[in-house]
Amino acid sequence: MWFWKVLVVAAIGTVHAASRDQWLGRSIYQVVTDRFARSDNSTTAPCDAALGKYCGGSFQGIINKLDYIQELGFDAVWISPVQSQESTRTVDLSAYHGYWPNDLYSVNSHFGTSDDLQALSAALHARSMYLMLDIVVGDMAWAGNASTIDYSTFNPFNDQKYFHDYKLLSEDPTNETCVLDCWMGDNTISLPDLRNEDQDVQQILGTWVSQLISNYSIDGLRIDSVLNIPPSFSPVSPSLSGLLNYPMYYILSEAFNTTNGDLNTIVQSINNIRTNCADVLPLGTFTSNQDVPRFGSYTSDLSLARNILTISMLADGIPILYYGEEQHLSGGFNPVNREALWLTKYSMNSTSLPLLVQSLNRIRSYASGDGEKFIVAPKSGTDYLSYLSVPIYKSNNILAMRKGFTGNQVVSVVSNLGAKPATKATTKIKLGSDGTGFSSGQNVTELLSCKTFVTDSSGNINVDLSSDGGPRVYYPTESLNQSTNICGNHTQTLTASSASQKTSTSAGISSFDLSMGVRTLIVTAALTTSYISTLFSRSPSLLL
Ligand SMILES: *[C@@H]1O[C@H](CO)[C@@H](O)[C@H](O)[C@H]1NC(C)=O
Ligand SMILES: *[C@@H]1O[C@H](CO)[C@@H](O)[C@H](O)[C@H]1NC(C)=O
Ligand SMILES: *[C@@H]1O[C@H](CO)[C@@H](O)[C@H](O)[C@H]1NC(C)=O
Ligand SMILES: *[C@@H]1O[C@H](CO)[C@@H](O)[C@H](O)[C@H]1NC(C)=O
Ligand SMILES: *[C@@H]1O[C@H](CO)[C@@H](O)[C@H](O)[C@H]1NC(C)=O
Ligand SMILES: *[C@@H]1O[C@H](CO)[C@@H](O)[C@H](O)[C@H]1NC(C)=O
Ligand SMILES: *[C@@H]1O[C@H](CO)[C@@H](O)[C@H](O)[C@H]1NC(C)=O
Ligand SMILES: *[C@@H]1O[C@H](CO)[C@@H](O)[C@H](O)[C@H]1NC(C)=O
Ligand SMILES: *[C@@H]1O[C@H](CO)[C@@H](O)[C@H](O)[C@H]1NC(C)=O
């Protein structure tokens, strides 16, 4: 559809051709800056997400907790919009989330100073990690109804001429013109809609974005509220772009949020997306974000959580984990899905999920040749990342996928059997050599338990999910011979999970020359408001 096409071609400023490829091997941790970590390192400071107040998270807080993010295996961090915000707290709560800008040229003082933001960028780059910035380019914010707006207070859009006439999108949400031109927000918080189709608006935004990128050495951008930005908006030259894979998100949450979901729908959805989307590799796969309920709000069953994380993070595309999903936080719809992570004490053993996430990131990184070292050509099909996953077993309750060429194939088996699958009819399956690519009598390591199995004389492998409902991830044992942080050198006696491994803060990340300034960018587009994403959720083709 029109509004997505824009983003597929819109990227910002001086973008290098390599940028898409450099992002493909990355794994992104998304934080709500106000809720991730505080400068004082407190793990007790109260934060009731339902109240919608600032809770004290900051850029310095993120710097202090980069070890945690890196230990989880991520090599890119997506943070909230950093601009100065409408400061009034109304019944629509406050702007702790960063989506209510009023001055694009100053930094939200609740998060720190521009020096602090530069320090965050430098700290990430020192670890060979990338910084992705969320930006709002479609509107400004004002506490009060339209008739009360003082446009002169906005920077740089200090005149009503930059904005569409007042009409709320909520009044006419199915009118395509209105979707482009109407105002999001309501009469409590007005979000006057920028005339992104106008050249002067584009030019002002373009200047701002280029400065932002160069002032803070930004590696990637995520543009908020895409739906509300017209096709002609492009302050920028065409280049790479990624999109958040919302169709997959809805299918996955429905398939895994109860034990009655149907995993066949996942295969259908993958096929649809491949048919309709020219380039699936930069699609961001996720299980939750700031606009939708957390997976933990649907179910407390950790087996289901482990399975959805596994299929999501090992899928084709770029994994994006919303902070706190690894801690099985359970907030439902906005605003309660923006909990303070510090209250979890950043534990790596709160549940099995943090170490699962670590293992999945390491597996993906290892199979793909450690990210940065491994620059792939678009659709070359010769490497792990561009090998499009093939379903090799599917039923309502169990799905097995293969990704990767023989010798480097990751075979994952997920289920929605739940933690107590005993009563289910089928908990054991046999995967044939034709699907897995494993040969007869081959040693295959299950990477989440670090147990090694030998395929039978036909190359089959038996998968038994009766104890815990999975997931399982198989990989040729001999191909682990260069791994240092997966399954303790792949020895045979392992029963411990990779949990017990030594965790290195630079696990799986090669150091590389990172020139400051503009280097690499991705634009990840998304629908912002939950009512709009709900509106379109059932028709993936609309997203293309
Ligand atoms: C917070 O933690 C960081 C990283 O561990 C440490 O360097 C810093 O001194 C701590 N700050 C405070 C105020 O305790
Ligand atoms: C807008 O807000 C002002 C100030 O609260 C109020 O006096 C006025 O009636 C409101 N106008 C509309 C159209 O709601
Ligand atoms: C759709 O919205 C536009 C912009 O508000 C408006 O001008 C137009 O009349 C609306 N169309 C219909 C059919 O209501
Ligand atoms: C970038 O830095 C320059 C020089 O300090 C400053 O004038 C400009 O306002 C900054 N732009 C942004 C978007 O931060
Ligand atoms: C499962 O997820 C779907 C899609 O997000 C949602 O509509 C549905 O309410 C969820 N079901 C349960 C039982 O949580
Ligand atoms: C998690 O690890 C910490 C530090 O090693 C330990 O003190 C704590 O008891 C562990 N908690 C659980 C639930 O295993
Ligand atoms: C499988 O592993 C065992 C134990 O390490 C080893 O003796 C055997 O040679 C391996 N088989 C193959 C086919 O590599
Ligand atoms: C690791 O195993 C592969 C496949 O057997 C082999 O080609 C490679 O030489 C081995 N590398 C090392 C360092 O042993
Ligand atoms: C395990 O790997 C480490 C790091 O590569 C190496 O130093 C050590 O000798 C290996 N241990 C075994 C038993 O192979």
TrEMBL record:
As recorded in UniProt, its EC number(s) are 3.2.1.1
Which cofactors must be present for this protein to function?
Ca(2+)
Output the SUPFAM superfamilies linked to this UniProt entry: (Trans)glycosidases, Glycosyl hydrolase domain
Instruction: Cite the entry's keywords alphabetically.
Output: Calcium, Carbohydrate metabolism, Disulfide bond, Glycoprotein, Glycosidase, Hydrolase, Metal-binding, Signal
Cross-referenced InterPro entries: A-amylase-like, A_amylase_C_dom, GH, GH13_cat_dom, Glyco_hydro_b
Which cysteine pairs make disulfide bonds?
Answer: C47-C55, C450-C487
**Amino-acid positions noted as binding substrate in the UniProt annotation, renumbered to this chain:** W100, R222, D291, R338
Site entry: Transition state stabilizer: D291
Q: Biological process GO terms, please?
A: carbohydrate catabolic process
Per its record, the protein catalyses: Endohydrolysis of (1->4)-alpha-D-glucosidic linkages in polysaccharides containing three or more (1->4)-alpha-linked D-glucose units
From which residue to which does the signal peptide run? 1-17
A GO MF annotation of the entry reads:
calcium ion binding
Q: Which residues form the Glycosyl hydrolase family 13 catalytic domain?
A: 30-364
Keyword Transmembrane helix on entry: no
The Swiss-Prot or TrEMBL record describes its family as follows: Belongs to the glycosyl hydrolase 13 family.
The name under which this protein is listed is alpha-amylase
Q: Which organism does this sequence originate in? A: Penicillium frequentans
Lineage, broadest ranks: Eukaryota, Fungi, Dikarya, Ascomycota, Pezizomycotina
